[in-house]
Design a protein that fits this description.
Radius of gyration of chain A: 18 Å
Subcellular location (chain B): Cell membrane
Shape of chain A: globular
Largest interface: A-B, 33 and 32 residues
Largest sheet of chain B: 11 strands, mixed
CATH class of one domain in chain A: Alpha Beta
Distance between the termini of chain B: 37 Å
Radius of gyration of chain B: 33 Å
Number of helices of chain A: 7
Pfam family, one (chain B): FtsX
Shape of chain B: elongated
Number of domains of chain B: 4
Helix content of chain B: 55-70%
Membrane topology (chain B): Multi-pass membrane protein
Strand order of the largest sheet of chain A: 6-7-8-3-9-10
Helix content of chain A: 25-40%
Number of strands of chain B: 21
Strand content of chain A: 25-35%
Oligomer: heterodimer
Number of helices of chain B: 24
Keywords (chain B): Cell membrane, Membrane, Transmembrane, Transmembrane helix
Main location (chain B): membrane
Number of strands of chain A: 10
Structural class of chain B: alpha+beta
CATH topology of one domain in chain A: Rossmann fold
Strand content of chain B: 15-25%
Largest sheet of chain A: 6 strands, mixed
Structural class of chain A: alpha/beta
CATH architecture of one domain in chain A: 3-Layer(aba) Sandwich
Chain lengths: 223, 831
């Protein structure tokens, strides 16, 4: 089964204290976690605990200072690039390309893979997230909730094995956040993908199969 | 005070930003170039003006290549308040085995009518001012002649069998202005009393200095126009300076250069300005949300902008003052002696104020859309600015209008301005259409195909609006650079082609039949070989289709200024071996006595002649008309001597004019030391060692090269600035795109490849537009403004374009590589 395994992961960076002295800031140490296909994980924690950094390491966007991220895809050991090809991302800031219209943004991962059906598949996903009427609109012509729906459609259009979401409802009102949460988890279930979610929202985190708390450099499984 | 402090703090903070620095640099470069051009021009014009009022030596000077008849002379004396006669002859002086070519001026006792001569008791002595020329039996030599001949004042030299004593070193004559920018070595002696003609053979110029009040002057002008069509008249009051034609051409070139720099600077500043607008709008929104009124917000922005302008102007002013010194020194050394006085480096406050005022107006105009945008928008709009097509088009149109108006105000050559702006507008429309058509078509064709190229076309098509602005900016830059480089190269080549191709090492410029017989004997004795020999008569072109040449041609040109003096009219039954027919038909056997003429191709273009035109020449006191039946051009490989005007052999022989010879010789090393014999026997014989000729040419070429190098440096800097503005315009978008693509599983080299494809496509479209734009500008401007035929060298064009495209792609790739050095997470976090 496809999975990502974090083994004794540690990460820190150099900073300066208030008096201007060099200081090493430890985010986490000796951290272990396995993310399997079809399961959803929510990571909670206070601001500055290192949740987004941890997510970037699980998604192989960043390398940890210590430990190892082992990736298994289709029964074989895989590298970061292969994982990225099988992943989808949903960010708090959406990260849509402003120069592309809604359809272009959703079709982007498929076009990069040379999929001749990119436009049709993208249209299907726009329809799935309720934005087919907005296909020709640019991101700056859409509301925050609509932009996040677009980002979800883009994350799922290439049928990813893993989806990573960083504060997907952080910029949205309660009502929209609830809708986005349902949409995200609905898509995960439909696709059978794994989901790793970083959030402050208890409501959203309760929708996940596993809830983890990152605090003081340690990751705890919540009941 | 708080308000100003805030503006100052904002300004200081902004100075650290690359965009602000680029904008200041563009402003400084523009201001520097304009100030340099204006200040140098003003200094030079001032000197020319002073020359005209103080150094003409009279109110009017009439020059002719034949003496006035006794009747004409007395009529002129009658019309004027005072008259002085001088003659100029080019001769070679010899003394103690040394030879020096000089321009000898023979003057009467009334010379000069106005101003004074500057002389010295020795080469190095103080200047002494005198009101009269040398007495009989005396000769004054300029310092170069004294050095060349190894003479000192007090010594004697023989000239035409007569002893002359060198009594003074000649520093300056008040009618030097008539010599234009000639740097000939000079000598002065008294005009032999009662002589109807000078005792020196050679090409003599007869000058009559006249004093006259306004009414007398009008009468003289009318009389000269009526009676002496071959005479050249210079007036102190509102007259044309001999350098005016030369300077007008120089100004044409610099006018065009200013235009090119304006265009590049304007586009660069507009590209940077759009990004600055976004940043400024955000800042204004924050300030307004904190209670600052929109009007005060605008004032704040205005103060910051003015601080930037002041800084640019200050830097540019200092640089321009230093630059002016360099330019004027360069001109002074090249035109040494032509002015007689130093060209004074000055600030010219009025010129300075006008130039900076105009530039301020341009910059303000370029800022206007930003100011209006910031002033009108609500806080929400300021925080989330949108680019709309009509606003962009309006901005572009506004920029073009301001730019056009300013250039029109600055350049006094309206035709050139209109031609250039017209060409640029057509180029812009072409590039915009090409971008739209090509990207749409290519994206449609590759829509169902995978790969990075298809993806690249897709993203480019999606951001068509922004991309068009980038491609148009680069296309404009490429057009201007390509056109300027091509023009510089073609001007250089034209100069070289005119002057360089020589055969033999001694040119016989002018020899009478008797002198030629002596040369032949001498060459046999010294083992020298005569290479080429062509007969000619001196002829003055006085009318073209019944009009004076200036009136017919309409525009100043090299050819027009040359035909103000008598030209060499040669003849040949057949097309000479070193010529090729470029128009019409050469005369056949039987036509030899008919009054037909063939004119050199470039001269025809310069003067605007067509086949069938009638050209009237004054030859040996008679006026003869010829019909233009052919055009000829130089063909290398069969001797270098070619004539601008050629007629059938029988057409001039019957006129009885003095037949002269022009030719070339190859002298062995030992013959050079015996050349003095010829000059001693024939002081009027004009022989020119090719080395001397090439030295003169090299000096001119060196001046042109230095000026061109300086200008190219400015142009290169401005182009680099524009490219940097273009690249930076999309840097943020590219970083975001790269971050996203890397998160989707692409490798860094995929991003680089994608970037390369994008720049190659951009460069290809911009290059295509640039070639079309250059061709259009070439067709329109070459002939009408620089009197050159537009014959583009496709290899040179494509080669230059390839170099520019490669530089652009490398710069784009370098920026992309730079942005990819950070990790994906950082890239995403930055967005």
């Amino acid at each position: 089964m496809d999975h990502i395994e974090l083994r004794a992961l540690g990460h820190w960076f150099e900073g300066r204290s208030q008096r201007g002295e060099r200081k090493t800031i430890h985010l986490f140490d000796n951290l272990n976690l396995t993310v399997r296909a079809g399961r959803s994980h929510a990571i909670l924690g206070p601001s500055g605990a290192g949740k987004s950094s941890l997510l970037a390491m699980i998604a192989a966007l960043e390398r940890p200072k210590a430990g190892e991220v082992a990736i298994q895809l289709d029964g074989k050991v895989a590298d970061a690039i292969s994982l990225r090809r099988r992943s989808g991302f949903v960010f708090q800031q959406f990260h849509l390309l402003p120069e592309l219209d809604a359809l272009g943004n959703v079709a982007l991962p498929l076009r990069l893979r040379g999929d001749g059906e990119a436009r049709e598949k993208a249209r299907h996903w726009l329809d799935r997230v309720g934005l087919s009427a907005r296909a020709a609109h640019r991101p700056n012509q859409l509301s925050g909730g609509e932009q996040q729906r677009l980002a979800i459609a883009r994350a799922f259009v290439a049928e990813p094995a893993f989806v990573f979401a960083d504060e997907p409802t952080g910029n949205l009102d309660q009502h929209t956040a609830a809708y986005i949460g349902e949409l995200l988890f609905g898509c995960v279930q439909e696709q059978g993908s794994a989901l790793v979610l970083v959030t402050h929202s208890n409501t959203l985190s309760r929708m996940a199969d596993c809830r983890h708390q990152l605090s003081g450099g340690r990751l705890e499984l919540l009941a | 005070m708080n308000f100003l402090t805030l503006a100052w703090q904002d300004f200081r903070g902004d100075l650290g930003q690359v965009d602000i620095r680029l904008q200041l640099l563009a402003q400084t470069l523009l201001a520097f170039f304009l100030l340099l051009l204006s200040l140098s021009g003003a200094s030079l014009r001032n000197t020319l003006q002073q020359n005209l009022s103080e150094m003409l030596g009279a109110d009017l000077v009439l020059e002719r290549h034949r003496p006035l008849s006794a009747t004409q002379r007395s009529a002129l004396a009658e019309l004027s308040a005072a008259l002085s006669e001088t003659r100029l002859v080019d001769i070679t002086l010899s003394h103690a085995g040394r030879h020096q070519q000089v321009q000898l001026k023979l003057v009467d006792h009334r010379y000069p009518l106005q101003g004074r001569l500057a002389v010295g008791r020795s080469r190095a002595s103080e200047h002494e001012s005198v009101g009269q020329g040398p007495g009989a039996g005396e000769i004054w030599l300029d310092t170069r002649a004294l050095t060349g001949l190894g003479l000192a004042t007090g010594e004697s030299l023989r000239l035409r069998g007569r002893e002359y004593r060198v009594t003074r070193a000649l520093f300056h004559e008040p009618d030097r202005l008539m010599a234009g920018h000639s740097v000939a070595v000079r000598a002065m002696a008294a005009l032999p009393a009662g002589a109807g003609g000078s005792s020196f053979s050679g090409d003599t110029r007869y000058r009559y200095l006249l004093n006259a009040d306004t009414s007398q002057e009008a009468a003289i002008v009318a009389w000269v126009e009526r009676e002496l069509p071959d005479a050249h008249l210079i007036r102190k009051r509102g007259g044309q300076h001999p350098l005016a034609g030369f300077w007008q051409r120089v100004e044409n070139f610099f006018g065009l250069s200013a235009l090119v720099l304006f265009a590049l600077g304007g586009v660069a500043m507009d590209l940077i300005g759009r990004r600055l607008l976004r940043r400024e709008a955000y800042r204004q929104a924050v300030y307004q949300s904190l209670g600052l009124s929109p009007a005060r917000g605008l004032c704040l922005y205005g103060v910051k902008w003015m601080l930037g302008v002041a800084l640019s102007f200050l830097l540019a002013g200092l640089l321009a003052l230093a630059g002016q010194q360099w330019v004027l020194q360069l001109l002074q050394s090249h035109l040494a002696g032509a002015f007689g006085v130093d060209i004074e480096v000055a600030w010219h406050p009025a010129v300075l104020a006008r130039t900076l005022g105009l530039l301020l107006l341009l910059l303000l105009c370029l800022q206007l859309p930003t100011l209006i945008g910031v002033g009108r928008a609500s806080v929400l709009e300021l925080l989330r600015p949108r680019q709309r097509l009509p606003a962009l088009a309006l901005r572009l149109a506004w920029m073009l209008v301001c730019f056009g108006l300013l250039v029109a105000a600055y350049s006094d050559n309206t035709r050139l301005t209109l031609l250039m702006i017209g060409s640029l507008l057509v180029t812009l429309v072409l590039i915009a259409s090409l971008t739209f058509a090509l990207l749409t078509l290519a994206e449609r064709l590759t829509r169902r195909r995978g790969g990075l190229l298809a993806f690249c076309l897709f993203t480019m098509r999606q951001r068509l609006l922004g991309k068009s602005a980038q491609v148009m900016g680069l296309g404009l830059c490429a057009t201007l650079l390509l056109f300027t480089f091509m023009l510089l190269r073609d001007l250089g080549q034209a100069m070289e082609a005119n002057t360089r191709s020589m055969d033999g090492n001694l040119l016989i410029v002018r020899a009478t039949s008797a002198q030629m017989a002596d040369i032949e004997t001498w060459s046999r004795r010294t083992g020298s070989a005569l290479r080429q020999l062509r007969p000619y008569v001196r002829a003055q072109l006085v009318r073209i289709n019944g009009l004076a040449p200036e009136a017919f041609s309409g525009q100043p040109s090299e050819s027009l200024s040359r035909i103000a003096r008598p030209i060499r009219l040669s003849w040949s039954a057949e097309l000479p071996a070193n010529n090729r027919l470029t128009a019409g038909r050469w005369w056949q056997t039987g036509d030899e006595k008919r009054r037909q003429i063939s004119v050199e191709d470039e001269v025809m273009t310069d003067l605007g002649l067509s086949l069938g035109d009638t050209l009237a020449f004054a030859i040996g006191g008679q006026q003869v008309e010829f019909t233009l039946v052919a055009g000829h051009g130089y063909r290398p490989g069969a001797g270098s001597i070619t004539f601008w005007f050629q007629v059938p052999p029988g057409a001039v022989k019957s006129l009885g004019a003095e037949v002269l010879q022009m030719g070339s010789m190859e002298l062995p090393e030992r013959a050079w030391s015996q050349l003095g014999e010829l000059w001693r026997r024939h002081p009027g014989l004009e022989l020119l060692p090719v080395k001397q000729l090439s030295e003169r040419f090299d000096a001119t070429l060196a001046l042109v090269t230095r000026v061109v190098s300086g200008y190219s440096l400015l142009l290169g800097l401005m182009a680099l600035l524009l490219v940097a503005a273009c690249v930076r315009g999309f840097e943020r978008d590219d970083r975001r795109k790269n971050g996203l693509l890397l998160s989707l599983g692409l490798r860094r080299y995929h991003c680089l490849r994608l970037n390369l494809y994008e720049w190659l496509i951009t460069a290809a479209i911009a290059g295509g537009g640039a070639i079309a734009g250059t061709s259009l500008a070439g067709q329109l401007i070459y002939r009408s403004q620089f009197h050159l035929n537009y014959r583009p060298d496709p290899f040179y064009l494509l080669g230059t374009l390839a170099v520019m495209a490669a530089a652009l792609c490398l710069l784009g790739l370098w920026c992309c590589r730079h942005s990819l050095k950070v990790s994906v997470g950082e890239l995403m976090a930055e967005s």
